[in-house]
Amino acid sequence: MQKMNAITACRLSVVRCPSAHAVHEAGSARRDNQHPRTSRTSWFGAIVLALFLCASNGVLAQTKAFTNDQVLFLQELTTFLVDADKKEGKPFMEQEFTPAWNGTFFSTAQRTRIVELSNVMLKKRFEAFPSFRDYLASLVAFAAGGRSGEEFDTYMTCLESAAKSSRKQNLADLIAMSASLFKDNTFYQG
Prior knowledge:
Elements: H1 2-16, H2 18-28, H3 38-63, H4 70-84, H5 86-102, H6 108-123, H7 128-144, H8 149-164, H9 168-184
């Protein structure tokens, strides 16, 4: 019984301790009509909103369709690739794709098909690297390879057919294979 009284007395002294009571009161005191969770909720909401806006801005920037104007398309595509990877995108666009695009190989109708397929790729959320770079590299290699316009039209028809598939991977595989095929004459790069 004496043990019980010592434990009870200890508990009572802790509960009645004036300094512990003051700390408890200070921690639970509310600031001028402010709910205790308001400040935490406000910060949490602000952080979630900021993250959402940043994420949606990146998504919108990548899914905005390319224009069909040939000069603007080249500028938009350059910005898209350089923003994704400046180290690799800028030299590729300046030294490889821009000369091919501004050259005489692609007709106006073929350029329109290139823009349309690029927009399909954007809609399917293809990444700038490696997918878009491989697609553009295959176009560059095709133009530099001495092939005919008819062969290019056939190639574009194959890509467009693969793009109609519900599987994004079908088009990605065809682009990757054709990029290495036209550039290095290899079917598989392991």
